[in-house]
Amino acid sequence: VGIYAFEYIKHEGKEERFFTFYTMTTGVLVGLCFAANVPTFYLFYEMMTLITVPLVIHSETKEAISAGLKYLGYSVFGAGLVLLGFFFVNAYSVGDFASGGTLDQALVAGNEPLLLVIYFVMVIGFGCKAGMFPLHAWLPTAHPVAPAPASAVLSGIITKAGVLGIIRITYFVFGTEFLGGTWVQTVLLILALLTVFMGSMLAYKERLLKKRLAYSTVSQVSYVIFGLMLMSPAGLTGALLQVAFHAVAKNILFLSAGSIIYKTDRTYVDQLRGIGKQMPIVMWCFTIASLSLVGIPPLAGFVSKWFLATGALADFGVLGTVGAAVLLVSALLTAGYLLPIMAAAFFPGTDYGYAEMEKREPNGLMTVPLSLFSAAAVVLGIFPTGLINFFQSLAGQIIK
Predict the structure, then answer these.
(1) Taken in order 246, 387, 389, 161, is the CA torsion positive or negative?
(2) Does the N terminus or the C terminus of the chain have fewer Cβ atoms within 10 A?
(3) Sign of the C-alpha dihedral, residues 222, 223, 225, 226?
């Protein structure tokens, strides 16, 4: 995405400022991933929000500034819920993050109901960054105004910081032995499924391309949260696979949308008729990412959705069956809001003026990253065994 941005940001201007905050974002995310305890994790989590706001407001338009303030407001509120939870958890846990959790069982005894409420509040807080209902509204506001490389980072990576927070508190602070089978697990599974369905429906109705992709992120990242809340090896494996494969697919989609905007200034779905004839490389990459996001084999997205569905059916009875059905319905809706774009792009109809069309393909700085991402979506779908084994091994170490 950074390579792609070298060309794209010429369209937006203020390149030095963009790459300053882009590089700082990379550093903060590395710090977040290596944080070994609650205070360090929270420090980098808040820094991540503050440093990514300038990426949202880069164009400095009224809409961009308003979206940036909304993103900041939601993020600070969500982080505030997390901080509140950390204050409470600090009194009941010991040491750095550890597989199985860090709760002191002697201190926990008799306080289980309070701790379950605190855990629920913290997941809602982290869920804000991950785009989970009810704190999801910043995503469809921020994406349309942010530069395409920033949108790719927000959707592909920054939302996963919320997922990482949920992983840390679920598996490394509270522990599945404490949380499994409780009301909070059931409620969060239902909230995740509600977000999956709601995001797909809103994307299906949306006409602005980048906003449609933002609602898609709301839906697709909640697949991850659903897998995490299953608290089973299969569910966790599916969630981690979805983290990787969604990042690949959504980066392709947002960079494709950015390429279209860069070369044609078209922003609405209805304006993309025939665009596949003008920008075939871009739209073939868009097509591969769309099919992966739907879950069509042999592309990567099929693998993660298979693990999520089988994990739900194996471990959760009626709710698991409902979950698998919601994932299937969401896949159909995803096909409904992405496949018509591809059809209109490549098959605009006999009344379309082919003679007047000219090639508008962007240069290699934009098409090569798109092509590499697309190749990854295909290769990881055909040869997923290495990644599956890695995540299964990881899940076996985490769930104790």
Answers:
(1) negative
(2) C
(3) positive
Strands (E) in the chain, as ranges, are none
344-326-179 Cα angle (round to 5): 135
What is the C-alpha separation between 118 and 178, in angstroms, rounded? 13
- Quick one: tokens of 365? 């700085």
Q: Contact 342/264 with Cβ under 8 angstroms?
A: no
Residue whose C-alpha is closest to residue 380's, from 292, 320, 312, 306: 292
What is the predicted pLDDT for the residue at 96?
A: 87
Q: Mean pLDDT in each 10-residue stretch from start to end of the chain (400 residues)?
A: 90 88 93 92 93 90 90 92 90 85 84 92 92 85 86 89 94 90 92 92 90 90 92 91 93 92 87 87 94 91 90 83 89 91 84 66 90 94 94 88
Q: How many helices (H) and strands (E) does the chain have?
A: 19, 0
Region label for 277, one of left (φ > 0), alpha (ψ between -120 and 50) or beta (otherwise):
alpha
Backbone angle region of 35, left / alpha / beta, with phi > 0 → left and psi within -120 to 50 → alpha: beta
Pair 229, 238: CB distance under 8 Å: no
Rounded CA-CA distance 300/241 in Å is 9
Scanning the structure block, which residue is given the tokens 């942010």? 146
Picking from 172, 393, 191, 196, the residue whose alpha carbon sits closest to that of residue 309 is 196
Judge whether 316 and 394 are in contact, CB under 8 Å.
no
The distance in angstroms from the start CA to the end CA of the chain is 37
Phi, psi of 273 (to 5 degrees): -60, 125
Of 157, 42, 177, residue with least CA distance to 99: 177
Q: Does residue 279 come out as left (phi exceeding 0), alpha (psi in the -120 to 50 range) or beta?
A: beta
Q: How far apart are CA 99 and CA 199, in angstroms?
A: 32
